[in-house]
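Case study.
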Amino acid sequence: MKKKIIAMILACTMVFSLAACGNKEQNTGGSSTKTEGEKEADKGAEEETGGVELEVVTTFAGNDGNAQNYKQWYQEWEKTTGNKVIDMSSTSSDTFKTRVVTDFETGSEPDVLFFFNGADANSFIEAGKVISIEEIRAEYPDYASNMDDGRIPVSLVDQKAYAVPVNGIWEALFVNTEILEAAGVAMPGADYTWEQFLADCQKIKDAGYTPIAAALGHIPHYWWEFAIFNHTSPENHLTIPESVTDEIGQEWVEGMEDIKELYEAGYFPENTLSATDDETFAMFTEGKAAFLLDGSWKVNGIVSACQSDPDDITTLDTEKLAKFDVTYVPAKEARKATDLLGGLTSGYYITKKAWDDPAKRAAAVDFVSFMTSNEAVPVFAQHGSSALNNVPEVDESAFNELQIKSLEMMAGCTSITGVVQDLFQGEARVPTFDGMPEIVTGAVNAADAVQEGLDIYWSAQ
Amino acid sequence: MQRMQYRKVWIFTGAHNKNCKNENAGGDASGIPEKEGVHMGANIYKNKKPLLLFLLPAFAFMIVYLYYPFFKNIFDSFMQVKELGISGEVWNDPWYSNYVKLVQDKNIWTSLKNTVIMTLVTIVGQVGIALVLALMVDNIRRGAKIFRTMYFFPIVVSATALGLLFNLIFLYDKGMLNQILSALGKEGLTDWKEEKLALFTMMLPVMWQYVGFYFVIIVTGLNNISEELYEAAAIDGATKLKRIRYLTVPLLHNVLCTCVVLAVTGALKVFDLPWTMFPKGMPLKSTFLTGTYMYYQTMIVKDIDYGAAIAVMIVILGVILSKAVNTIFKEKDY
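After joint prediction, the assembly is written out as follows.
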């Protein structure tokens, strides 16, 4: 008898386990077991009363400067509509990008996605798994109508716009002015040259500080991009050379050699090849390194580092924050220091999966419209740019000192160019990104590394 | 007597059922009254179908989530796979090109070398230290349980958490170790993750984490050795060291063999802690292990089919090493 009971329990467990595995569709989609008529009826009801669950993936998570804003805004949308957001956001990284692309391949994509609009998005756009803004407007004419269409980036695949942008990014040189003062170096401005930068680095090093906070063995991305940009120009920066023998190819090699020169002069941290980006960032905020080349999202990172409680803005040490500034990256050759890198590199996509689901289509459109409204965009864009038709007046009183300095720096910007590394992806990057330590230590010749990357890139085209 | 009778019944009923498959239970030709337990036992041993039913889900699970991906992975290592999650549709040119690349890739040789070092460190550092600790704990009268718990504790902490913990210990600026060295008067900071020290820094936490695991196994083995043997040896005048050399270690032979086999196969699978401490084989790709290099190629470089080829190599390496270890450290029958 006992054995029979055990057998029954085991059988029940097995059945429940299998049922649980197959339950997801019913919980989230809710449409698979209904007829078309029922779905239409549901659609009408849900548009009135809410009750739709939207799976949303963004990069607004972790220490991203907009993580809190995102949470507040989607919760506001939930309250207004009665719908629910299943937030599966994660900080941006190579692993995150791979996860998103793999989710599309395996049919596990979310309903709405905030993601990059460069080459990272090519695979799911090629597969027709996201809906273009044009197609959405055929049914919802007001969709993204508050945006300047000319500024919405188009896909590299078919030159169509898919992602509705929110906040633009820029890359620039953050400065710890306390170290500059201690080393007797003036705050760099709009006419900052490479020669002046080298001289300043030497002064800072002589004063016992590390001139540049960078982890070349971990995140060489920003130096890679600007070192190349210093030899190219806003007009041809996004052109990928055929080989190191052509003009742009030569410029790429010269860029790599500039980084090598900085490394050999000892301007990077002693452990730049073994440190992580977090470690070198801490050197900068703790007053051990003078310069940090990074993106606009780091403004909030620096502000957090000046708070006794990183999650509580009221604990901000304004005196400490006042020691940080942001300026232009030193210029070399044709590029002006005020020519910056950046742009509207990400945006909200609506996936085909959500679009084809009558219960979710309207909710997905409404969610993206809400998150890209004239009210939401300035909150997310802060000191960065946006694609809004009518840019609202900036209320500087709501900004901290570093955000105001960022606005001033951006006001003097003469051009913003996209980053070529968004086009030069995957394995092609490896010889010069992951191979940067080999390049700067001389283990690998810069020209060989660049050529290897170009060979991989062109063989994949 | 009763037991004997039941035994007979069981044998008889079994034979009877074999010949008369369709005959219902409820008494048999022998005329011996049927007992419920006896009859049920007969059915359980005779009717194998319910057992198969319960074995099938696990079997299907293994087929779908282990064997199919395993063979698919071998197939993919010869194909061009653009993204994770999709199958390759075009053969590599030549089809074995990933395996040629494997031989020519110097990072593979680095990762193989590091994996072999990791295996040796595991045997000596984990099993060796565990043996010494177990022998010491076995010889104390009080507190043995506390030591067992304390040494075993690192096993229950996730490897990623341990990686982050050791990252703070070995941190260049303000790391615990460098602060201690500074307090002791050392000038300048030591970069524990630089090329020369990186392997040491990576292997120390891995070694530390699993010492407790082998410690518990060996302590259990020690408890199984009869106290009388030690008493006899003591009467014969054997010192403590001699008792360990001539009694404990030989009698622990099989336990130690099991530990070594587990340690070697475990060393081949180490991934999370090294990856947390040394992402992308930092510095200068000198800390790659076979597992971390496969992950790097698949997830970071996105050379999926090459990652598949590395996975095949890891399986082959695992089979060879396991076979070698099983042959060298063969268990003895006493």
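Observations recorded in class. The first strand of chain A starts at residue 53 and ends at 57. Residues 15-49 of chain A have pLDDT under 50 and may be disordered. We will return to this complex in the next lecture.
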